[in-house]
Amino acid sequence: MNQLADKMGTMNVGPGYGYNSQGGTNIPTVALMGVAPRVLDLDMPPPAINLPANSSITDSLHANCDPSYKRSTLNAIPATSQLLQKSRLPFGLVITPYRSVKEGDDPVPVVTDSIIARCRRCRTYINPFVRFVEGGQRWKCNMCYTLNEVPSSFDYDSLTQQPVDRWQRKELNHAVVEYIAPTEYMVRPPQPLVHLFVIDVSYPSVQCGMLATAATTILESLDRIPDDEGRTKVGIITVDSSIHFYNLNTRSGEPQMLVVSDLEDPFLPQPQDLLCNLKECRPTLENLLNRLNDMFKDTQAIGNALGPALQSAHKLISPIGGKILCLQATLPNLGGGALKVREDPKLLGTSKESTLLQAGSSFYKTLAIDCSKTQVCVDMFLFGSHYSDVATLSCLPRYTGGNTFFYPAFTAAKSEDALKFAHELAEFLSQRIALEAVMRVRASKGLRMSAFFGNFFVRSTDLLSLPNVPRDQSYSIEVSFEDNLTIPTVCFQTALLHTSSYGERRIRVLTLALPVTNSLADLYQSADQVAITTLLASKAVERGMSAKLDDARDALTNKCVDILGVYKTHLTASSSGATPNLQLSDNLKLLPLLTLGMLKHVALRGGSQIPSDLRSYAMHLFSTLPSQCLIPYIHPRFYSLHNMPENCGTIGANGIEMPITMNLSSERLERSGLFLLEDSQNIFLWLGRDAVPQLCMDLFGVPNCESVRGGKTTLPVLESDFNRRVNLIVGKTREMRRTSYYPQVYVIKDDGDPALRLWFLSHLIEDRAEPMMSYHQFLGYLKDRVNSY
Amino acid sequence: MVKTTMIARVSDALPLAASIDDEQVEMELKEYKSQAKLIFRKLNMNSEKRCSIESGSHVFHYIIDHGVVYLCICERNYPRKLAFTYLDDLSKEFFMSYGNEIDRPGLRPYAFARFDTFMQNTKRLYQDTRTQSNLTKLHEDLQDVTKIMTRNMEDLLYRGETLDNLQGKSDLLLKDSARYRKTARDVNLQALYRKYGPPIIIGFVFLLVIYWRFWWY
């Protein structure tokens, strides 16, 4: 019993929910009202997965999937669909298959000998949860229980002519493995990396400095673009009222521009040389990038023909597949796919607002489907001083596995804007992405995948086609029942067949095994609030776009009420009648807080103040951010800097020490204090109105707080100890997450610009903000609804 | 013109490199590419080193060099000399760049996919008509077209004929037939003996007896 507990305990990172020395899950019930929520518990690992003894055939610590790759909303599965219905808990998986590997992370083990053992009936890959029978000659699949032959190379290596120990094989010891795929898994030779830039060169683009910044950043990142085999191809197309192609393979080394003005039927001016090998045409490409800004600096063109340009770009790279990076600073207004300014402030806050969040033109969705067929992915970088129709343009990345980046009110004159864009573009280009990928999730008999959320294209019921797989993008899948489960454990296996950025065809397999239970108490004690929030965020966004935002908000609130109601009725002593307090198990206690965070978030908030571009972009982030970044986005981290302990901001044993996170309530704000709030997209520094002049001197280098400038700033680097520590903390905030977003620093003064002040205060979700309730009011509202359950 | 090129290892038909084709070519040649894979599987160390296989409206030309087969699919009217010169160029460059890595154990499929840039550039050279006529003149003496065996794809598929080395076979056949002739002559002689031997011996003994009777008395 103790051995079991030890094994189960070591499966978590630290002491997690449900770990006690008896090995049972004994999570206490906590009362929610009257106490401030323990926000430190947001960083806890999910509840322990208590599999029956000897479920995995080796004793490896990595036999079950790491939560940062794949996690389930419930770490114990209900046996019947009635039990799931009764519990009102959402059941789904949150998968980040191509998670980045930072320092300190273990790399994914690779099976190099291409011996891929798969079940002959259900095509599951062999994993640590199968059983060997008949003395090890055959293996029994843990999904469909068919007996399969063990390949002879499991015990004997034919190349070195030596016996091998099959228990050392990586696929039997690790839940996350990668296979090198043999020829049967390829329809064509592995494609090289292709980057085609479609850059807007109309007047607004040059005015705001986007063109100059983009050209310089691309020039400086050319070395960082992965090019191990020398096959990477690069091309540039610039767009204003006509389409300009560039011949990069000229003998003289001077790039040659070819202009196509026919927007009705765009064609490629020459069959070769518009897309060239990076190594071979590097000097010409650098020449072009250096001259790009000068070529267009006097342009007065305000037309932009993005639609025809994208069609030509697609025609150019469809033989090979690859990535189109679209840098756009105006609304496309010529040719197919022209968009009108449809933002109407009268519609905001009404039920018609969701029409502004849906695509305005079907051109982009049709183009996305064509692109997905030829393994072309489109990424959008949108810079808008005016309306940019993010909702329509982000359709292209959504169905082709790409990414959208939005920089509202971008001006390169502000060095912070330029730096943010340059940093994000450089990181994006240097990412080692996966190409021409398909993904499928298999589950044990009785379960099936019913809904998919994320950036991909769903082909044929459960096959997800991703022309490009960026690092750290998360996909949510809802699971439903077909039959009741009679088996003690179920298994979810995700297989991602892809080509790596260095031209190797590989299969990444993630296996997650979970126990089955008949008890409602077990279900509640094994629920993972982080995964539940991620899944509910994706569902709410989907509902908000297809129906109304009110519906999405109501669905979230109702789900919270349901969960609390079921817990009260079935799992607490007072099963009916009014209770003085709301009760929930310890591992779910932050769910009402996270729900309130989502309701108050820019993505779903009511009211008529939020422009649809910002809302659309926030919704896009809701559906693609991995859990590690989504939770801070919904519930920002709040630190007090002016009175932080001496060791915060210094380099300690585990890297830079951070101060303790506080509750998001304005009660914590002090008039003489300095506070930091970060939500993985922005960093806010709040300066109280009575801040001591010494603080302003130490941090900003100015004599008193009147001279501190509010708004977007770069923190100066000064000699004082405090400044050094704050800079280290800001630096750590930028680096500690897995994605490549670069948060900007805003200085908010208590007595400064009221718009900025309001923006900062809107992140303090425990507060009351008209017309939304404060956290305690929300709990009261939930209690009333639960009492009448 | 040369539509597509495929390079594979002869011993196990492992693909090593292939040209990247556009969608139109892919659709046209889908069936031909699967036939090409069939050809790879039928090849072994004793196969004919240079061969053209006709199939429908296209022709497969291949050469085997240092354990690697280089195959290209062309239209029927493309001159064979040029196709084989193109394949020779490829084989020289490929062997020079990757020759010592071909037999590495555990080689992954399309391990030398980066060879496609060279293939693309060479293919373009061979498409230019002016270069074509130059090359034709240059290589007229070097290539003896009659030495290249021509087969038909249908034969391969339906009658199961092999692409074996005819020269070797015919030498063997010659030796075998000479030996057969000798053996046949021997056997014939033996049969003659067996047929006429006993009567001749009896006749001889009879003559001996008569001779002895008449001459001694």
Mean pLDDT, all residues of chain A: 88
Strand content of chain A: 15-25%
User: Which chain pair shows the most residues in contact?
Assistant: A-B, 27 and 19 residues
- Which class best fits the helix and strand makeup of chain A? alpha+beta
Outline the low-pLDDT stretches of chain B. none
In percent, how helical is the residue content of chain A?
25-40%
How many helices of chain B? 7
The helix/strand order of chain B is EEHHEEEHHHEHH
Largest sheet of chain B: 6 strands, mixed
**What is the overall pLDDT average of chain B?**
83
Distance between the termini of chain B: 102 Å
Query: Strand order of the main beta sheet of chain B, please?
Result: 2-1-5-4-3-6
Corresponding CATH architecture of the domain at 194-430 in chain A: 3-Layer(aba) Sandwich
Largest sheet of chain A: 8 strands, mixed
Secondary-structure content class of chain B: alpha+beta
The proportion of residues forming helix of chain B, as a percent range, comes to 40-55%
Name the overall outline of chain B: rod-shaped
Can you count the helices of chain A?
22
Main location (chain B): endoplasmic reticulum
Membrane topology (chain B): Single-pass type IV membrane protein
GO molecular function, one term (chain B): SNAP receptor activity
Domain Longin (chain B): 6-119
Characterize the structure shown.
With 789 residues, chain A is an alpha+beta fold. Among the domains of chain A are: 120-168, SH3 type barrels (Roll); 194-430, von Willebrand factor, type A domain (Rossmann fold), CATH 3.40.50.410; 636-761, Severin (3-Layer(aba) Sandwich), CATH 3.40.20.10. Chain A is 29% helix and 21% strand. In chain A, strands 3, 5, 11, 20, 22, 23, 25 and 26 form an eight-stranded mixed sheet that branches. In chain A, strands 12, 13, 14, 15, 16, 17, 18 and 19 form an eight-stranded mixed sheet that branches. Chain A has a five-stranded mixed sheet with strand order 28-31-32-34-33. Residues 1-15 and 18-24 of chain A have low confidence and may be disordered. Chain B is built from seven helices and six strands. Chain B has a six-stranded mixed sheet with strand order 2-1-5-4-3-6, sandwiched between helices. The longest helix of chain B has 51 residues, at 166-216. In chain B, 24% of the residues are buried.
